[in-house]
Structure formats: C-alpha cells, structure tokens
Amino acid sequence: MSMVINADSDCLFCNIIEGKIPSTKVYEDDYCYAFRDIAPQAPTHILVIPKEHIPSADALDSGNSSVAARCLEAIPKIAKGEGLENGYRIISNVGPDAGQSVQHLHFHLLGGKRMPDQMI
Ligand code: 5GP
Ligand code: ZN
Description:
Blueprint (H helix, E strand, L loop, with lengths): L11 H6 L7 E4 L3 E5 L7 E7 L14 H18 L5 E4 L3 H4 L8 E5 L9
Antiparallel strand pairs: 1-2, 2-3, 3-5, 4-5
The structure holds guanosine-5'-monophosphate and zinc ion (ZN).
C-alpha cells in the first residue's frame, strides 16, 4: 500500500495507487506506479502515473514536475520489460478536447503493434 501526495479520495487513480481498487501492477518506485489499462488499445497498454495527485499535465509547474520526470524515466525500463524493441508511443491527454477521462496525470505507454493512426 502506497501513500499519495495530495491524494483525492474521489480520484480513481489515487485509489488504485493506494490499493483500494485492484490493478495489474507492472512497475512501482517511490514516485511512480504503472499498471495495465483496463481497456487496452494495443498488445501493451500501460498507464504510468505519479504518486502525487496532479490533475493533468496542465497542472505541472516547477514544484511538481520532478515527479512527472520520474515517470518519464520509468518508461524506458517498463518498455524494456515489455520487449518493445520496435518502438512505442507515449500519450498524455489533457482536458476535454483531448478526451481526458481520469483527472490524475497519466502517460499511456502503447506498443506491441504498428500504431494504426498517425495524427502527428
Ligand atoms: P484518458 O482517457 O484519461 O486519457 O485515459 C484513462 C484511461 O484509464 C483509459 O484508457 C481507461 O481505459 C483507463 N481506465 C479507466 N478506468 C480504469 C480502471 O479502473 N482500471 C484500469 N486499469 N484502467 C482504467
Ligand atoms: Zn489522483
């Protein structure tokens, strides 16, 4: 069971980090938690989240960006563990126009197939 900084008891991902809602953990360190997405869009679809309740990338500032950096640093390790030698995609949706549905910063890590759509 992990502590979340600035935890929001109504936040799904805070509750997942705290073990109140089950998840399939892939990686954990002092700053980050990673688990499999419940509705995978690729053979590997992992959510990498900070152990601090930050609503989205739009709430990043000099006081909390280091935990986001820790999550980014975890991604190569997770990708290696998943065998994603051929590449992967990292996505972080922010707000309604991007379709963000959970208001706790998360990085989607997608891989294991050639991605079908190439917006950018
Ligand atoms: P967003 O739409 O905010 O960018 O991404 C939220 C992601 O959380 C979605 O891909 C969705 O499938 C995933 N998700 C929603 N609820 C749960 C849950 O209870 N467990 C897990 N593992 N993933 C979830
Ligand atoms: Zn949260």
